[in-house]
Amino acid sequence: MLYKAFSVTGVANETVLDDGLVSLVDEQYRLVAVIISCNEWEGNIIEGWIGTNNIISLYDYVIDTRALEATMPVSTMKMNKIEVNEDIPAGQIFKIGVNSGATATDIAGAYVYERIT
Question: Residue 60 in 3-state DSSP?
Fold first, then answer.
């Protein structure tokens, strides 16, 4: 397994995506999962894209938050890992981001991936 960290700072009323995980002709990847947390629950949508195909669309409410980590343990009821198991075609990029409403949400985590070539 390989891991690549990501961080996205949300912007109110915009969709912001990270630089992503690029699959090359010589080195193609399978995205196994995304490990993720958000800074606050604001009812915004976490999106994951391979090219123009939206493969993740979840409200931030289902993702664990770092907001209370100093006083409360990590929730066992919220998602920390999103299983994906999708090949990223050569020349395509998987990107994750947040579609924020009036109040932005920040996300951070890591891609869990493997080489398939």
Answer: helix
Q: What is the pLDDT of residue 65?
A: 81
The total number of structural domains that make up the chain: 1
> 95 pLDDT band (50/70/90 cuts)?
very high
The 8-class DSSP code of residue 75 comes to P
- CATH, residue 82: 2.60.120
- HEC profile for 3-56? EEEEEECCCCCCEEECCCEECCCCCCEEEEEEEEEECCCCCCEEEEEECCEEEE
CA distances from 48 to 37, 54, 69, 117 (A): 14, 6, 25, 23
Give the residue numbers spanning the domain of 12.
2-115
What's the confidence (pLDDT) of residue 64? Answer: 82
